[in-house]
From TrEMBL:
Domain Gfo/Idh/MocA-like oxidoreductase N-terminal: 11-131
UniProt cross-references to SUPFAM superfamilies, sorted A to Z: NAD(P)-binding Rossmann-fold domains
Organism per entry: Microdochium trichocladiopsis
GO BP, one annotated term: NADPH regeneration
Gene Ontology MF terms in the entry: nucleotide binding; oxidoreductase activity
Lineage of source species: Eukaryota, Fungi, Dikarya, Ascomycota, Pezizomycotina
Stated name of the protein: NAD binding Rossmann fold oxidoreductase
Length: 384
């Protein structure tokens, strides 16, 4: 018989937000990882969503209480039945919910984007620093850039670091409708429409104020329907790709070209080392997922290829194409694991909470995404 004392500590998770990503990704993954996590509390503005998902979360022992529900994030964060908090609420609430968790001394995993403006990211950083200064040090932030936790991505970063000289790089994310992939995920998510008029009005008002702060006050860019949509899509889709770019290559020096607009956009960055980085992204109706990072040197090309995260266990692959000498083309494809990036990210979060392991996707790291968004929007709206 296995020694119970050798089993890993199970973290009690409070989940704020029961929308699509929670339904398709977070709840199933946490349940798969029940040796490390237990969902004890759910929070959402939809009473119907709370009722539905609370009923779907099983208790694992006779002594375990059924999952609790609340519409009040502060109640969840203060509960002694919650060890750590996963924030998957709407982007407009990420900062408030993360800070509420930190002030209760809880570690928190926040879905990207961490926030919609620099002001709010800086508020999260201050709350984290205040918690550390109090001496407890329990409340820390990890940002959910799951693509950066893919096993072969970390291998690719080492390959890229070993290149003699980078000549060109490309980060691309042109994908079909998420609804297509979600429908094939076998998770059968539901949409709930029982939000109150007050909740809808509050969300809309927050979005308007936060985007206005980001564009006008922080970037000096006029607020229009077009600039607002572009800012939101950079936060939603672009943060995946641009954070990958930052880790693999470092922050670019400046933007030297941009064609912004939906459904497809393109940005050209200049790196301090002299090469250019092309960022191509967009949303089309072809049901495929073309997301990759590709880096070129004279004798080697390193490419990390991603598939949709909504269908579990699709592998992330590393492809190395190189000059084998004497006219020989050598191509290597590496699939390191079928464990998806969300599972690997949650394993890192467990180590962050239980073992105190430092993480790379910190709030300060996320602040650089807002800096990149600002560079893009300033160039694309007449700046140089």
């Amino acid at each position: 018989m296995a020694d119970p004392s050798s089993a890993p500590r199970v973290i009690n998770i409070g989940l704020i937000g029961c929308g699509e990503v929670a339904q398709v990704i977070h709840i199933p993954t946490l349940l798969y990882m029940r040796s490390h996590f237990r969902i004890t509390y759910l929070c959402d503005v939809s009473p119907a969503a709370l009722e539905h998902y609370a009923a779907s979360i099983p208790t694992t022992t006779k002594s375990q209480s059924p999952v609790k529900t609340t519409r009040d994030p502060a109640e969840l964060c203060a509960s002694p039945e919650v060890d750590a908090v996963l924030v998957a609420s709407s982007d407009e609430y990420h900062a408030d919910h993360a800070i509420a968790a930190l002030r209760q001394g809880k570690h928190v995993l926040v879905e990207k984007p961490l926030a919609l403006c620099r002001r709010d990211v800086e508020a999260i950083i201050r709350a984290e620093e205040e918690e550390i200064a109090r001496g407890g040090g329990k409340g820390r932030v990890m940002v959910g850039y799951m693509r950066r936790y893919a096993a072969v991505f970390e291998d690719a970063v080492r390959e890229i670091g070993g290149l003699d000289r980078i000549l060109y790089a490309r980060v691309r994310d042109i994908i079909g409708p998420n609804s297509t992939f979600v429908a094939q995920s076998a998770t059968f998510p539901r949409k709930f429409t029982d939000l109150s008029a007050g909740d809808v009005a509050d969300k809309n008002a927050r979005a308007l104020e936060q985007v206005r702060t980001a564009l006008e006050a922080e970037c000096g860019v006029a607020v229009t329907d077009e600039s607002t949509r572009m800012w939101r899509v950079l936060g939603g889709l672009g943060s995946h790709d641009l954070s990958l770019m930052r880790e693999a290559l470092g922050m670019p020096e400046r933007v030297i070209g941009a064609a912004l607009g939906l459904p497809v956009w393109n940005v050209l960055f200049k790196h301090a080392s002299g090469y250019t980085i092309s960022y191509e992204s967009g949303l089309i109706n072809v049901p495929q997922f073309d997301a990759h990072l590709e880096v070129y040197s004279a004798d080697k090309i390193v490419r990390v290829q991603y598939d949709t995260p909504y269908v579990k266990a699709l592998p992330v692959t590393l492809h190395i194409t190189e000059n084998g000498g004497d006219g020989v083309l050598r191509q290597t494809s590496i699939r390191k694991t079928y464990e998806d990036p969300y599972t690997l990210e949650l394993r890192e979060f467990w180590q962050f909470v239980v073992e105190g392991k430092e993480v790379k996707t910190t709030a300060r790291d996320a602040l650089q995404d807002l800096q990149l968004f600002g560079m893009i929007m300033q160039y694309g709206n007449g700046g140089r």
